[in-house]
Specification:
This protein is an all-alpha fold and 64 residues long. It contains one helix and no strands. It is rod-shaped, with a radius of gyration of 28 Å.
């Protein structure tokens, strides 16, 4: 192989590696965003134990 062929092969491998790293970074970010426990801190996800609306004291008396 000549020096020119080696240079072309290195460039191809470098570009492929860069593309692979970029794809893995995007896929990793998407996986983190789609994770079930990815809700921001301080927020709850709705579920079977969600008792909305929350009972607060006694209800108001009916109006005649």
């Amino acid at each position: 192989m000549t020096a020119e062929q080696n240079s072309g092969m290195r460039k191809t491998v470098r570009q492929f590696t860069l593309a692979l790293v970029a794809c893995l970074a995007v896929a990793g970010g998407a996986a983190l965003a789609a994770a079930p426990d990815a809700a921001p801190a301080g927020q709850q996800q709705a579920g079977a134990n969600d008792d909305w609306p929350h009972a607060t004291g006694t209800p108001a008396p009916p109006v005649d």
